[in-house]
Amino acid sequence: MNKRHILFLILIVVSSTSFAQQIKRFNPDSIRTIVIDSAINIRSHHLNAQDFIDAVLADTGFYQAFHNMKKYDFMAENRIYTYNKKNKVDGRIYRKIKHSTINGKHKTEFLAKQDTGSIYKSNGKYQLYTVEMFDYIFTNAYNSDFIKGPALPGSKGKNETYKDKLKTLIFAPGHKVTGIPFISSKTEIFSKDMRDYYYYQFARGKYLDSIPVYRFRVVRKPSEADNDVVVKELTTIFDTRTFQILGRYVDIKYSNWIFSFDIQMNIELANVNGVLLPTKITYQGNWDIPFHKTERASFLIVHKDYNKE
Q1: How high is the pLDDT of residue 18?
Q2: CA neighbours within 13 Å on the CB side: how many for 22?
Q3: DSSP 80-111
Q4: 161, 178, 180, 209: which sits with the fewest CB atoms below 10 Å from its CB?
């Protein structure tokens, strides 16, 4: 993986998560499967803001959920849309994939595979790095480290540190991510320097129609300038019975003379016989870097029918 690929890899996930103008795209909104009952006074539930913050910072459940997939057979449906500069769809990808384990070896079977529009370059590679990085992160096309497998070529040394940044950005929001120009300290949204930029909001509701949950939203104060913060919103969904994190939505936006991005991302998990597993991932976003056309894409990933090997 060369340095340009690494930059795009970092940007797509830093930018892992409204647009300067409202653009209606495929499945853009956050955690639709939650119905909010009401705002809550967390003191009446014997909780305080720090309880939620500590749980977000200490959580490893999201990372573990992706590792848990390798122990299961399941179905995946992936829909990807790319857009031109007028925000019209100019490319579509659809994949229906059966993941299974046979004699101890993972097998990927494509039950449906449809591509239309401007997807590939003449050399067969994807037109957009966004789509390439989608493959790297979520479909394991390049033996992504998010599911254990053979090491990537060149995964030693400097590239490994970039993968660690990537994992932090996806699975550990709120932590400082060093080594990203202009951004690193601004990802540490619960730090003493950053807390005054945000409101904390608490509500309760139902997840998947039956699971009682708390919704903890960290939202940028309207008075703050756009580039004072990078994370505009971080929403976390907790099971009220176990305080286990079941969902996460992040909205991130930043712009300077080097690069800009404006992206939303949502990840939902389900408890399958006591084991957390990813069930839904949505992404939509714009990003731009010098000497490269602006990339606009959205995607929906659905995992279902988990069965133990």
Answers
A1: 31
A2: 1
A3: EEEE-TTS-EEEEEEEEEEEEEETTEEEEEEE
A4: 209
Separation between Cα atoms, residue 212 and residue 207, nearest integer Å: 6
Q: How far apart are CA 63 and CA 226, in angstroms?
A: 30
- With contact defined as beta carbons under 8 Å apart, do 130 and 297 qualify? yes
Structure tokens that stand for 302 in this block: 């659905």
Beta strands in the chain (DSSP E): 34-39, 72-83, 89-102, 105-117, 198-207, 211-220, 231-239, 245-255, 260-272, 275-288, 295-308
Q: In what order do the strands lie in the sheet with 198-207?
A: 34-39, 198-207, 211-220, 231-239, 245-255, 260-272, 275-288, 295-308, 72-83, 89-102, 105-117
Q: At 274, list the tokens.
A: 């006591």
Picking from 128, 137, 55, 144, the residue whose alpha carbon sits closest to that of residue 91 is 128
Q: Which position has the token pair 């097998």?
A: 107
273: left (phi over 0), alpha (psi -120 to 50) or beta: left
Q: What span, in angstroms and rounded, lies between the C-alpha atoms of 130 and 11?
A: 9
Which residue in 80, 24, 89, 118 sits closest to 283, CA to CA? 80
Q: Which residue has the higher pLDDT, 299 or 38?
A: 299
- Quick: pLDDT tens for 220-241: 888 766 667 888 888 999 999 9
For tokens 């998010």, name the residue.
146
Does residue 287 contact residue 261 with C-beta atoms inside 8 Å? yes
What are 124-133's pLDDT values in tens digits? 888 887 787 7
Q: Please tell me the distance from the alpha carbon of residue 119 to that of residue 93, in angstroms, as a whole number.
A: 8
Choose among 194, 182, 216: nearest CA to 45: 216
